[in-house]
Amino acid sequence: xxxxxxxxxxxxxxxxxxxxxxxxxxxxxxxxxxxxxxxxxxxxxxxxxxxxxxxxxxxxxxxxxxxxxxxxxxxxxxxxxxxxxxxxxxxxxxxxxxxxxxxxxxxxxxxxxxxxxxxxxxxxxxxxxxxxxxxxxxxxxxxxxxxxxxxxxxxxxxxxxxxxxxxxxxxxxxxxxxxxxxxxxxxxxxxxxxxxxxxxxxxxxxxxxxxxxxxxxxxxxxxxxxxxxxxxxxxxxxxxxxxxxxxxxxxxxxxxxxxxxxxxxxxxxxxxxxxxxxxxxxxxxxxxxxxxxxxxxxxxxxxxxxxxxxxxxxxxxxxxxxxxxxxxxxxxxxxxxxxxxxxxxxxxxxxxxxxxxxxxxxxxxxxxxxxxxxxxxxxxxxxxxxxxxxxxxxxxxxxxxxxxxx
Length: 406
Hints:
This protein has 16 helices and 13 strands. The two termini are 22 Å apart. The chain has a domain at 16-234: Rossmann fold (3-Layer(aba) Sandwich), CATH 3.40.50. Helices cover 39% and strands 17% of the residues. The protein has helices at residues 16-27, 51-54, 56-59, 61-68, 98-112, 123-126, 133-146, 173-193, 200-209, 227-234, 312-317, 325-348, 353-356, 361-364, 374-388, 401-404; strands spanning 6-8, 44-49, 76-79, 116-120, 153-157, 196-198, 250-256, 259-264, 286-290, 297-302, 305-311, 319-321, 394-400. It has a five-stranded parallel β-sheet with strand order 3-2-4-5-6. It has a five-stranded antiparallel β-sheet with strand order 7-8-13-10-11. A three-stranded antiparallel β-sheet has the order 1-9-12. By secondary structure, the chain is of the alpha/beta class.
């Protein structure tokens, strides 16, 4: 039988890590080479900020993509986001004076022991308008100075643009002018500190401007991301930067009289599928092209499971293969990441925190001894994440249908 040719098309795969690296190289004239901030083995990535950060615990797309992009690295993530928070930790004050919020913010970050600190502030502060800009910059620098003892590599995120949605939601034009000022201010802070700056404001604004007029919105109220918006953000392609290359690898190609067998041994998992029932995003589909088959109709099996049947002519032209078991693994990874984040949330921010540690601790403070018991639960999830982030080899079989039926 003449040699068989099997090829896979490169997906539109670009995780946020590429965006961060590309933006760092373009917008921050640091003395480090492009992508120099990339993760290192055993990094502890701590995310802190307002609703932009906290909501990733609900969806998990950002952390999942960054984990997938680094399957060989032992990374841990800790999310310290707090909805509506400011650079002075105002939301964290609770029933205490505002200064207590800043103290809590500092202590929470240092306790998490970051080696990489991802900071996502600006949306809540931006409602103070141009008049509050200098106060925002002062507070931002005060926060970074306060957590400097951690010696973490800094990644500063700009706030997102305010999305235009139908009435009765407000026209975002004026607010976006203010947000642009706050995004620019974060960029200047990053440049002064030789930190990585990620201009989400410009990136998402450009992405939305190229979307169809009737596209599903990114947000539920103009400023807070939905699951779809979080997925789009995590998978935003970089305008420049290093090419990660295709994750798809084929080995053990074995032609036979009845078809062909091979093993898909990918270098990393595909990007998470778009939220919804189809799981058919272009980012995670692969195209198989198999030539020189004997005429007939061939069934594709993955790990022994029938997937689809096409003619030899169709396989020679190329067939888009439906999402397979690798996407089941991706979704299990994202699910486990979300479970880990929920357990960690209960560890550092229990819902009854006022009764355990606050001014009513005289009522239930004795139960505070149970909070450290979340640590082994979080560790167990970390071990599961470490297993799930590594791609698994899958066996592909293409068998002529008359042979299948025998």
